[in-house]
Amino acid sequence: MTKIVVYYSKYGYTEKYANWIADTLACPCVPLDQVSQIDFSKIKTLILGSSLYAGTMKGSKLLDEHLDKNLIAFSVGLRSPSEAYFTEIIENNFSKEVRDKVHFYQFQGGMNFKELSFIHRLLMRGIKKFTFDKVPVAERDEQFTKMLDCYYESFDFSDRSTIQPLIEQVDTL
Ligand SMILES: Cc1cc2nc3c(=O)[nH]c(=O)nc-3n(C[C@H](O)[C@H](O)[C@H](O)COP(=O)(O)O)c2cc1C
């Protein structure tokens, strides 16, 4: 066993990606709260997945403890993957040592508004009103429009095929 996926997921979207990756790589997949059970001495490649909450990836500090391994990280969020957003997430969540060696990927998840915690519902109502609704209609792409249409119900943009570049990177290590 030389590869492992460790993930944090609150509502199941990151867990889905973590399971897809572990299934493709035929390696174990362990939730972040069970990380103490892992024998890291046998691990050569550590893949950390974490959902984004206000730009923060829970568990990102785990990578600082494993600078001797191949490091892969992925975030799952609502924002469509973009170079500028990647850069911001990496800067805010990883130390310089980790940034210098981690291979980072960003995937899209989803949201089921009714399943959110009270606080998350409150925050997401605010984000819609003060940010999303203010994006001019001409600047909204198809996915953004779909998200706004289904915002208070549920939508899921997760897509197994998007893990392929991460898999190809792991295969080169
Ligand atoms: C309070 C709150 C804050 C969020 N902040 C971000 C964010 O900063 N960037 C982003 O892309 N998605 C953000 N999201 C969307 C979640 O990352 C998305 O719903 C994800 O699929 C959740 O994955 P999980 O179920 O694995 O935790 C936020 C969602 C909530 C409820």
UniProtKB/TrEMBL annotation:
<dbReference type="InterPro" id="IPR026816">
    <property type="entry name" value="Flavodoxin_dom"/>
</dbReference>
<dbReference type="InterPro" id="IPR052200">
    <property type="entry name" value="Protoporphyrinogen_IX_DH"/>
</dbReference>
<protein>
    <recommendedName>
        <fullName>Flavodoxin domain-containing protein</fullName>
    </recommendedName>
</protein>
<dbReference type="Pfam" id="PF12724">
    <property type="entry name" value="Flavodoxin_5"/>
</dbReference>
<feature type="domain" description="Flavodoxin">
    <location>
        <begin position="4"/>
        <end position="131"/>
    </location>
</feature>
<dbReference type="InterPro" id="IPR029039">
    <property type="entry name" value="Flavoprotein-like_sf"/>
</dbReference>
